Structure formats: structure tokens, C-alpha cells
Amino acid sequence: MGAVHDFVSLSGSMRHEGKSIGYIIGEYVGERGKNLLLWFAFLTIILVVAVFALVVGIVLNAFPSAATASFVYIALAVVFGVYLYQLDGPFIPGTIVFVTGVFAGVWFGINNPVALFPAVEAGAYPDGTIILLGFLGDGAWLPGAVMDSSAILTPNVAGWVPAILIYAAVASALPVWTLLQPRDYLSSFLLYAGVGGALIAIIAGTLLGTASQPLVVADSIAAFEGFLGVPAVSPFPLFPMLFVTIACGTISGFHSLVSSGTTAKQLNKESDARLIGYGGMLGEGLLAAVALSTLAIAGGAEAAAGGGIGGALPNFASGGGIILTSLGIPTSFGAPFMALVLVSFLLTSTDTAARLGRYMMEEIIGTPGSGTETGLSGGLSSFARGRYTNPIIQCGLGYVLVISGEWATLWTLFGGANQLLAALALLTATVWLANWDESKQLISTGVPMVLMVTITVLGLSWVAFKEQLYDQLIMGGASGLGAQVSASVRVLLALVLMYLALSLVKIGYDNISNVRGGSGATPEPSDD
């Protein structure tokens, strides 16, 4: 389903002049359907930008060597872009030189780790870590910073978050050749080395026992005990909650935004969509299997906030480092390398999300002229969609979400929102195929769409009515006015998401019924 989803999102966008899925569905069901989907996607993007910036900060805090390697990697990507597009340098020799430079950057980072502010807990950083902003104090004055090593938003993380958001805003405004294309190309070699190396290492370590510790699932990971999982930890039904928890490794609505937002504008020919869309998603499924393996080896998250996001993310690098010891690579190199693999794709996702948000706002408001206005003049609408100003809006809202802690309130709904977006992308493809030709079969996109709508609506229903309304409000789990308001907001947002999705499904179903119901002609889009 994920491969079909990514492929039809990419090919559908190419057949509609590189427009987004929101624009495509608007072509057939009218402005109301288009704007519903675009606003839904835009608000989801802001949450993605916020949480991914936080996630990068957490990883860079846990692995200061990856921070240095990231600086080197980004600098090399910019130089590589100039080398290819301005100096017209030969491609293969350039690839060899710059890819070698990226891997050398890992070694350089290990020997020169950097952090923005001193660690809250003594000894948390490697020896010799360079504190870049130490002259500004301990960072306790940063918005949202907590002087507690068990907290997620320690001063160093609180310092990295705005830095990452500023990077994302700048990167999203630059032409794709300056950073996005060369960086993603170099990232692909990190991915091949990380995933391919981990797969080979898992086989070697299992069969030959060459790893530094046995490659078995850690004792700290409890097994699921029946349909409701692990009752002592956080009981929830395996179906549907598992299917709104794992996203990018199976099927993810965010992929439809990337496919129709940036990828469709960069392909040389339409036939490339098969390998990049369908094949790329199969590759990401392999990456998901490797990610599960690294966490299985590393064990339960025991770091920040009693585990959770603050502990799980660094464990990806820690587990990956242990796995790579099967190939004779010491954890002192393997773990920072896997951290860089993780950070490189998180950075890519963060600034790509900001770029996609700008594209969506352009489609919502419209783009008179070339559509490349800066946003620094021309009124409110120009500011909202401008190349330089729209990222400021997104990253500013994202920063408020992070420092206020409200990202945690919304993140519980992100899985459902993201998978609903996948369902709506499949709906868009089904409507497009139905209007394209009567001979086009709709099973390949229609069946996954129905499954995804059903699963996500059930998942959001569990979050809204069981976890929030019943557990938090009726049974008194939410103690205090703030917690009760937070629970109420989650219930309301879940209901809004379900209404939004079901409304679009109804609009799409009516269109398909009219087209395939014997009327012959495609009806004019409705603006109701």
C-alpha cells in the first residue's frame, strides 16, 4: 500500500504540472475539497517542522560528534552544488571526492564534538567537547529550557531547536540546486552505507557471533501480552493503534506531500516515477526493519523523561553502533555514524517540510505572476506565501509549539493525522484515475484508501474517546485544569480530523459515482 501510495502521488503530480495532491483533488471536486486538504496538510506540516527540529536537537545533544559531522556534511553539500551547477565539474570524480568527504566528516566529528551549551549533568558529553556558546552561560535563560538531565528540553536541546528551525527556513528558501539536491544525493550514500552495513552486520553477527554483544532482543523490551499489548505499560489495542504508530516505514501521508511537492519537479522523465516512488518506498520499508533492529538491540529507552522520544531516538544510533561491531567497526565510530545517518534525513525532512508548506500556501492563496515573490512587499497574501516570509511563519509557529510543550499534546494525534493524509492521497489518486479513463481500474488505490480511512478513523476514535474522554476526563486521569483542557483539545482535534477526512471521502465518492455511474461526462467541479 505504501509503494502504491508514493507512486500514484508522484505520477499524479507529474500529470498535473507538478501540483500537490490538494490541487489535484480540487481539479475534480472543486475549491472546497482542495482547500480542505491543503489546510489539513499545511497544519500537519507545521507540526512536522516543530517535532523534527526537536528530534534533531535531541540527537545532537546525545551525540555531539554528529553535530560536527552535520556541519561538515551541510558545508560539503553547498560546495558540491556549486561544483556541479556553477563550475560544471565532472559528476563521477566529484561524487567520489565529496562522498569521501562526508565519511571523513564523521571521523572529524568524533575528534571534535561540539555542543551549544554545557551539559546539565557532568560527564554527559565526550571528553574534549567544544562548547560553542559557553560564554553566554549555562543556557538556563533559553525559552522552555529545563535544568534537569531527565527532561527533554535541556538548555543544549533548547539551543539546537531554534538553530535547526533557522536552518530549515533558510534552506527551504534557497533554490534546490544550492542545497536540497546535492545534500539529498550525498545523504543517499549515508543511507546505503548505514542500512546496507547494518543488514550485513546483522547476518554476520547472528551467524558468526562477531558483534560486541549477542544480537538478541534486549530483556528491557516487554513482549505484547495479548490484544491490548503490555497492560502494565500503556495498554492499547494492537489494531488499529499499531497502524497509526509506524508510518514512514509502511505508508505515510507525508510521503505524498514530498512526492507531489519537490520530487515531481525534479524527475528527468515520467518513467523514473516507478523506481523512485514505488521502489523508494520498498527501500524505506527495509530502513524501518533496520530501525526496529537497532532499537531491539539497544533495549528500552531509559534516558530523558523516563524514556519516550528523548530516550528512544539516541538508542537508534547506540543500537546501530553495536550492530556494526559485527564488521569490526568500533562503537566509538559506528554510533556517531548512525547518528549522522539519522540526523541527515531528519534535516532533509525538516527543511523539505518547510518548502512544501510554502508550496501549499501558494496553492491556497494563488500565485499571480511567476510565483517566486519574496514576500517582503505586496501585502498580507504576499507575506503568507513569500519565499522568504512563509518559512518564518511556519518555523515561528513550530518554535512556539516546542517551547510551550504543546507539541506533545498534538503529537498523540499526529499518527492518525498523517495516516489520514495517506488515505486522502489515495482518494485523490482514485478520483484522478476515475476521471481519466473509464477503463482504468480503481482497485489498486481504492481498496488501500478504504482500509486506511477505516484504520485511522478507528485509531483517532480510540485516542479521542478512550484515552482522552474516558481515561482523562471521566475517570479523572487529568488532574488539574491545564490537563483537562489539554485532553479536551485532543478530543476536539481528533473529531475535527475525522470530520475533515470523511467529508473529503464523501465528496470524492460523489464524484466517482457521477463519472462511473453512466453519466458519461465529467461533471464540472463544485465550489460549494
TrEMBL record:
Compartments, record wording: Cell membrane
GO biological process: cellular response to starvation
Bilayer topology annotation: Multi-pass membrane protein
Residue intervals of the CstA N-terminal domain: 1-295, 310-457
Any Pfam family hit: CstA
InterPro entries cross-referenced by the UniProt entry: CstA (IPR051605), CstA_N (IPR003706)
Keyword entries, A-Z: Cell membrane, Membrane, Transmembrane, Transmembrane helix
Organism superkingdom: Archaea
The keyword Zinc appears for this protein: no
Gene Ontology CC annotation, any one: plasma membrane
Transmembrane residue ranges: 36-60, 66-84, 91-110, 157-177, 189-212, 232-254, 275-301, 321-348, 392-410, 416-434, 446-465, 485-505
Protein name per Swiss-Prot or TrEMBL: Carbon starvation protein A
Organism from which the protein derives: Halolamina pelagica
Higher taxonomy: Archaea, Methanobacteriati, Methanobacteriota, Stenosarchaea group, Halobacteria
